[in-house]
Write a structure and sequence with these properties.
There is one protein chain. By secondary structure, this protein is of the alpha/beta class. The protein starts with a strand and ends in a 6-residue tail after the last strand. The mean pLDDT is 93. The chain contains 8 helices and 15 strands. The longest helix is centred in the last third of the chain and has 20 residues. The protein is 27% helix and 32% strand. It has a 6-stranded mixed sheet with strand order 2-3-1-4-11-5. Bound molecules: phosphoribosyl ATP (PRT) and zinc ion (ZN). Zinc ion (ZN) binds next to loops.
């Protein structure tokens, strides 16, 4: 049995449970539960505040955890980062009031900075040899300058709209974060085997993310050109069609490049292009 700690509510809760379901682990998303067992995999879920996840993983109460890298770094507990999960992306940045006349890092010398991440901040300031006062605040850090509690803030930024609506400007991006799978590093053999299964499934889930399956009819003499447009994992699958001189071509494309590739394929004579979602790619 593996125990996995995830956030009980908040920004990472939904995507954590969705990811586990995507890899075939049927977990509850009940926000009122503390502990629950998956129906179809030897896994028990422990629902916690994200602040507590690094600690329970490091002391072995949970074997694995899903939490932001920012919390792992800030709490400083001894845990292994097993895999970056590609969601919950954000950064922790220094921001100052728009009218502050910011002119470089030296501006922070002697200033008061409000944050919920004092350890990451003090390590950064030390590395830049800047002496500032750190005001630890939990929640609504962005109002600290207007409230006269601090001259600047060090806080999580994602879209940047919270800063804009508080008349703050992001001046230094210090730490990049995303949700990560962490482990205590002290797993039994049976638990290691379960973790390997989870990692294998996560790999297939992440490989297929942002990818589309594309199939089309294409004139036989355009196949070589199509192969250079669509490199695929090995090469595209090409199958002859009943109508002479035509083939069916199948491949996998990055969603970002999809429309670009479609124009190129149409230009070389592709017809009847179908684009399908991919559920899993097992490399
Ligand atoms: O209750 P619990 O302690 O579990 O939750 P929490 O309130 O401490 O954390 P929560 O749910 O807000 O965030 C959990 C994790 O999500 C964080 O530790 C980050 O790893 C990640 N994450 C990703 C974010 C954001 N994006 C984010 N935008 N966490 C917080 N924010 C906040 C930020 O604090 C600021 O107030 O959103 C605001 C900024 O967002 P933008 O889009 O306006 O820039
Ligand atoms: Zn928290």
């Amino acid at each position: 049995m593996l125990r996995i700690a995830i956030q009980s509510k908040g920004r990472l809760n939904e995507e954590s449970t969705a990811l586990l379901r995507e890899i075939g682990i049927d977990v509850d998303d009940s926000k009122r539960k503390f502990l629950s067992t998956a129906r179809n995999f030897p896994v028990e879920m422990l629902y916690l505040r994200d602040d507590d996840i690094p600690q329970v993983v490091s002391n072995g109460t949970a074997s694995l955890g899903i939490v932001g890298l920012n919390e792992v770094e800030e709490r400083g507990f001894d845990v292994k980062i097993v895999k970056k999960l590609g969601f919950g992306n954000c950064r922790i940045s220094l921001a100052v009031p728009k009218a502050a006349g910011y002119d470089g890092l030296q501006w922070f010398e002697g200033k008061r900075i409000a944050t919920s991440y004092p350890n990451i901040l003090s390590a950064f300031l030390k590395s830049k040899d800047i002496h500032a006062e750190i005001e630890v605040i939990t929640g609504s850090v962005e109002v600290a300058p207007a409230a006269g509690i601090a001259d600047a803030i060090f806080d999580i930024v994602s879209s940047g709209s919270t800063l804009v609506s508080n008349a703050l400007v992001e001046v230094e991006k210090v730490f990049w974060s995303e949700a990560v799978l962490i482990s205590s590093g002290h797993l039994s053999l049976e638990q290691e085997e379960l973790l390997d299964k989870i990692l294998f499934r996560l790999e297939s889930a992440t490989v297929s993310r942002g990818k589309k399956y594309i199939l089309m009819n294409i004139p036989q003499d355009a196949v070589d050109k199509a192969t250079t447009i669509l490199p695929a994992m090995r090469s595209p699958t090409v199958m002859p069609l009943a109508s002479e001189g035509w083939c069916s071509l199948h491949s996998v494309v990055d969603e970002d490049e999809l429309w670009d590739k479609i124009s190129q394929l149409k230009a070389i004579g592709a017809e009847g292009i179908l684009v399908l979602n991919i559920d899993k790619i097992i490399p």
